[in-house]
Structures are given as structure tokens and as C-alpha cells.
Design goal:
The structure holds two protein chains of two kinds. Chain A contains eight helices and no strands. Chain A is an all-alpha fold. Chain A folds into two domains: about 60 residues, no CATH class; about 90 residues. In chain A, helix 1 packs antiparallel against helix 2, helix 1 packs parallel to helix 4 and helix 4 crosses helix 8. Chain A is elongated, with a radius of gyration of 28 Å. By secondary structure, chain B is an alpha+beta fold. Chain B has a single domain, classed as Winged helix-like DNA-binding domain superfamily/Winged helix DNA-binding domain (Arc Repressor Mutant, subunit A). Chain B contains four helices and three strands. In chain B, strands 1-3-2 form a three-stranded antiparallel β-sheet. In chain B, helix 1 crosses helix 3. Chain B is elongated, with a radius of gyration of 16 Å. The two termini of chain B are about 25 Å apart. Classes of the chains: A mainly alpha, B alpha+beta. At the A-B interface, helix 2 and helix 4 of A face helix 2, helix 3 and strand 3 of B.
Amino acid sequence: MKKQEFLNELRRQLRGLPQDEIENRVSFYEEMINDMIDEGKTEDQAIIEIGTVDSVVSEIAKDTPFKTVIKERYRPKRSLTALEIVLLVLGFPLWFPLLVTFFTLCLVGYILEWVLVIVTYAVEAALIAAGVAGIATFFVYLANSNPAIWMLGAALLSLGAAFLFIFVCIGATKLSIRLSKAIATGIKKSFIKNGGRA
Amino acid sequence: MDAQLRRGVLDVCVLAAIKNENSYGYKIIKDLKPVIELSESTLYTILKRLEDSKMLVVKSVEFEGRLRKYYHITPAGLQRLEEFKNEWKEMMSIYAFIVEADLK
């Protein structure tokens, strides 16, 4: 890929960002590539070193705040015509519930993800509680030795399971955080790529 | 390296790279390469953050018929470097304590 192709493609894929931000980003990469070429690299080598346009856009998405992306997407590019305003008002009963549904679904997905994490911690807490209660029972019913021993065995089993289950809890939490971040970056990236001019 | 730690250190590395002479994007990446690798987009974000917090200023200079952005450190940037060095003196004594625990 040649320099100009790369820069044009980058500019195209960043169109969901504010105009001055696009210019800053593109001119930054242009200067980088020019400096690499001055150092004796070919255009192709320089671009390989920078990476693919897609990977550059991903990185930019990661450090662009949600606010910027959303603002740019819903900033009207021109003022609305009278007809559009009338349609917007008449269509309110249609688009408003759709919008609410969309955001509710996003929220539900997010809550669901964390509920699964909370469930793992609840299981952990239950295992510990059962273990502690079992041991307490063992001491209370020491006189009646047979069931007490059974109780102690079950309690120790429960505590052992609790110990192992800690790793499940930690794993689930980490996974959930990673997933949230990846989804956020994905959404931002698609907004940046598709731009406010959709 | 831990992401949080890396972030904090990178800012200071970039400041150090422009401390003695004004520098430009590609040169900063090259100068830092032996110490710490950073991508172009990461550098962009750091430069922006440092500019916003007035630790450096940007000046476009004509170079071989095109513009190149040169980054100049400000007194606030120099002060940040000094602060960092002091913070790390503390860090080093903590490190020494940890290593000592290994030897016992």
C-alpha cells in the first residue's frame, strides 16, 4: 500500500471523529511516514511498520472517550428542514420506544454479564457459610458423635470446594472486565468508522 | 509491565526524550525504542495529554518543504521530571526492601 492510499483510507475510516481530530491524526501519521521515508525506508516498508489501517483505528477507538464519539454521531450536519421536523414529531411514538428498547437491551446485556459474576461470588459465599456452619454444628452436637462426624466431613468438603471456587470467581471477574472493554472498543470503533454521516 | 505503571512511566519517558533538545514524533519513538516500545497512536495520545496539561508546547517548523511538529518542554514539564525522580527514589528504597526480604 502506498502512503497516499493509506492516509486516504485512514481518513475515511475515522470519519466518525470531529473534523479537527481527523486532521490531527492523519497529519501525525503523514509526518511519521515521511520521516521513515527520509530515513531510507520505502513507502511500503514504512506502512508495514505503522500497521494496518484497521489496527490503527482500533487503537484510536481505545483512547477516544465515548462522549466524543456519541457527540459527533448525533451532531446534526445541517439544520433540519420543516418537513423533517414534522416527520420527527409525528414519528415520535415510533422512534422513541425503539430508542428506549435499544438502550434497555444494551443495559440488560451489561447487567446480565455482571449478574453471572455476582452469582459466582454468591456460590463462593454459600460454600464458606455451609462450611463454617457445619463445623459449628460439629461442636454443638459433639455428644452425638456419629452425625457430628458426618457433619464435619461435609463442612470440610464444602470449605475445600470454596477454596477452589475462588479461582472461578477471579477468572469470571477478569473475563467480564475484558469483555466489557472489548465491547466498548468495538462499539466506539464502529461509530468512528461509520461516522455521523450514516 | 502493568498497564497502569506503563502509562505513568511513558509520559515521563517522552518528557525526558525532549528535555535536552526539541524533538519530533518519529525521533521520539526511535530514541525511546531501546528503553520502551511504543506505537504511533500511543505516542499521539501521550503528546496530546502532555500538551493539554501544558508540560510541552508544539511548534510546526518547515522541514524539506513540509511541516514537522516539534515538541518543546515547558517549565511544568521539567518540574514533572524532577518530581518523578524524587518519587522513584522512594520506590527504589521499597525495591531494596523487597529484594532484601528474598535474601533473608
